[in-house]
Amino acid sequence: MSDAASPTLELADLKTHFFTRDGVVRSVDGVDLQVGAGEVLGLVGESGSGKSVTGFSILGLIDPPGRIVGGQVLYRGEDLVQASSARLRALRGRNIAMVFQDPMMTLNPVLRVDTQMIEAIRAHEAVDDATARRRAVAALTQVGIPSPEARLRSYPHQFSGGMRQRVAIAIALLNKPDLIIADEPTTALDVTIQGQILFEMRKLCQETGTALIWITHDLAVVAGLADRIAVMYAGRVVEHGATAEILERPRHPYTHGLIGSVPTRGHRGQALFQIPGMAPSPLRLPQGCAFQPRCTRAVAACAAMPDLQEIAPAHQARCWNPVP
């Protein structure tokens, strides 16, 4: 889906299922995506759509009862689904970094920040303490931590929630990875700091060629950040294309509903659009298109699952009756 000749990352028919007592949850059910050097891909969807599980699957972070049951995760042509645990450990943090929604999934509460950042560098490079410390200070400065040299000697509990998240983002930037997967990392940050970090991440991608997958439910965030947007619903990509194209002319009814529910100045005082119903239980997905029970454009053909089809140049939608 990317124009890049050799993408940094390619997902081919990726399937990650969770085998529970009540049945099989198909959290990721046939996802195809690409992201190239210096490119930002926004992965958008409601809670439970499978976007975070997609990110975890890339790095092999799926624990039982979940497992990848099909497809490929190709990092520079290497299939990470078949990679050993040792190989994945070598790639994590150095070549592919992840920023989690909860910073305490990254930070150790009993170690000072400088210890954690220096170890993150030395795990992949043989550098002296002074060099590692300078890189740590530079990373903290990059994400807007005041007095970075002094804050290096702090413990995670001495930071606010938003400051902890900035430290987690700084750790992801330390080794200048080829790919960063960011799972809603600015949710806990105020608007000013969020804007600063989005600017820095965009600048990083442009200057270093780092590929970025930004996972979010907030279309406003990806509007100014992403080159392309992939919209997920019930474990599948239902629409994909250039950011401007998706936001200005959404073709899948779900994407159209998401954009219509965002407050704008042009609709001041008017009731916002609301997608009817609730997202289906992943254990009891409807036959055919999973969005069919909530869709105002449903037709008889929706009883069968549509393919992701190109409906405009570089714009795909999984829909039998797309929005005109």
From TrEMBL:
Phosphoprotein is among the record's keywords: no
Subcellular location, principal: membrane
Domain of life: Bacteria
Annotated compartments: Cell inner membrane
Pfam family for this entry, one: oligo_HPY
Record keywords, A-Z: ATP-binding, Cell membrane, Membrane, Nucleotide-binding, Transport
GO molecular function, one term: ATP binding
Biological process terms in GO annotation: peptide transport; transmembrane transport
Residue stretches making up the ABC transporter domain: 9-259
Family named by the database record: Belongs to the ABC transporter superfamily.
Protein name: ABC transporter ATP-binding protein
Organism of provenance: Vineibacter terrae
The organism's taxonomic lineage, starting at the top: Bacteria, Pseudomonadati, Pseudomonadota, Alphaproteobacteria, Hyphomicrobiales
